[in-house]
Design brief:
The complex is a heterodimer of chains A (about 300) and B (about 170). Chain A has two domains: about 20-170 and about 205-290, Rossmann fold, CATH 3.40.50; about 175-205, no CATH class. The longest helix of chain A has 16 residues, at about 50-65. Chain A has helices spanning about 1-15, 50-65, 95-100, 140-150, 190-200, 240-250, 270-280, 280-285; strands at about 25-35, 70-80, 80-85, 85-90, 110-115, 125-130, 135-140, 155-160, 180, 185, 210-215, 290, 295-300. Chain A has about 300 residues and is an alpha/beta fold. Chain A is built from eight helices and 13 strands. In chain A, helix 2 links the parallel strand 1 (about 25-35) and strand 2. Chain A has an eight-stranded mixed sheet with strand order 4-3-2-1-5-8-11-12, with helices on both faces. A two-stranded antiparallel sheet of chain A has the order 6-7. Chain B contains one helix and twelve strands; from the N terminus they run H-E-E-E-E-E-E-E-E-E-E-E-E. In chain B, a hairpin with a 2-residue loop joins strand 11 (about 145-155) and strand 12 (about 160-170). Chain B has an eight-stranded antiparallel barrel with strand order 2-3-6-8-9-10-11-12. Classes of the chains: A alpha/beta (about 300), B mainly beta (about 170). At the A-B interface, helix 1, helix 5, helix 7 and strand 13 of A face strand 2, strand 3, strand 7, strand 9 and strand 10 of B.
Chain lengths: ~300, ~170
Amino acid sequence: MRKIVFILTAAIALSSCSLDISDTKTVIISVALDYCAEDGFSQGNYLSNPPNDQEAFVSQTELLAGPRNTEKHIFLSKGGTRTVNGTESEWNEEDVLETIMNLDTESDDLIIFYYSGHGEDITGNLVLSKSDNGFGTISPEELLYAMSTLDGKKCIFLDSCYSGKYVDDLGLLGNGEIFGDDGSLIRDGFVSSLYPSLKISLLAGYTGSNDIWTMSATTSEQLSYDSGTEGRPNQDKYGAFTYFLLLALGYDAEEDCPMAITGRGEITFYGVYKGIKERMSRSMWSVQTPQVTLSPLDLILF
Amino acid sequence: MKKPILLLISIALSSSLYALSWNPSTSAVIAYDGTKYSKSIDSSGTLRSSIGGMLTLDVAAISIDRHSVSLPMSLALCSESNTEGRTRVQQRMTTGISLEYGYAFSDIFTLSASIDAAYEYFPKAEGGRWLIGGTITPEFFIGRLFSMITELSAKFGKGSAGFSLGVGAKVHFL
């Protein structure tokens, strides 16, 4: 008996390996647009909160990652002015993709892509510019391909309509979510997941994750809202999804400032997802149901 | 012709029923769990280690002489795995059912083997998957109703293969 306990303990000790995240780099690429008429968009496209979303998300993640270890690429369109890292620049979707693909990263680095803005009807394409020829967009295939070319672990957060189209079904796990004809969530949970998981487990084939974890504000058929209406502190300043994302990351919504709680421990991808679900009301969750890449592996963010 | 055949079957059944006994039990095991995922799922390609605890209830269990057959049901909780790079396997809960055969070599030693089907659920991600596998369990009796067990299991899921090695205790109710 003693020998068996010793072997078990030794196996755990020898196979453990902790990552010192302070030695790694966090790259933040963020894109946000208010679709102001001065930027060429029609008045009906205007969204007031994406610039707030971006500012809060970037400041919170930079605080958690540590400013010394953070590299930022901030694409903003606000009030008709386009900037990159605060400098005026007529950027478009090609510049965003080029920036992603030219990043210099290593295997333990974390690359975060955050978007707050419109998702094109049906396709979910991220809408980044407007010209006489139509909208300039980034499709799920383009974004996921660009991210897959990078070394390191990649995390995508999307606060836009139909953004579930960016969440790859790896064919590994089933979550048993059932939606009604109107696109709202009817049922989910452990019992609901049993049979869909069986079908997935029996079907041949699965997709590699390319080390990408994606969290979207909605399914591929739902709308995302510019703000929530539950009367929480400063909730009207942020996108409905981003507000709860910020809370799950530890943002102080009452003081409206970034905050890192000492002794909190690690923040992981599925920990954030769980944090959003615990805070968002069931009624909101049913009409705007965040989707996540389903993998047995959790990603340590901070 | 029918009557002699029926008589023979009755005698055979009653003879075996005389030696047939109901043998319910419960057990608790603590185990080391090692799982390896394919490289497309886990780019580190390393063995992921966790510690788990399992409770088993074996109500549908019968013994005939030295042979036993049962359908034990189990519930296991497994910790997060070790961290490799920036990733670790999530904490998970597994519920399963097995078809088990055991042979009592002596009054103090029984060896069992089973085929297992289990549902592995990840509560944080709220997703799950099904696994199949097998287990070998040597059992050492201390007294008539209490025994110590070791369990060696192999389990296979989509894109993964793993094993667990555990020690525990078993209590027979009858």
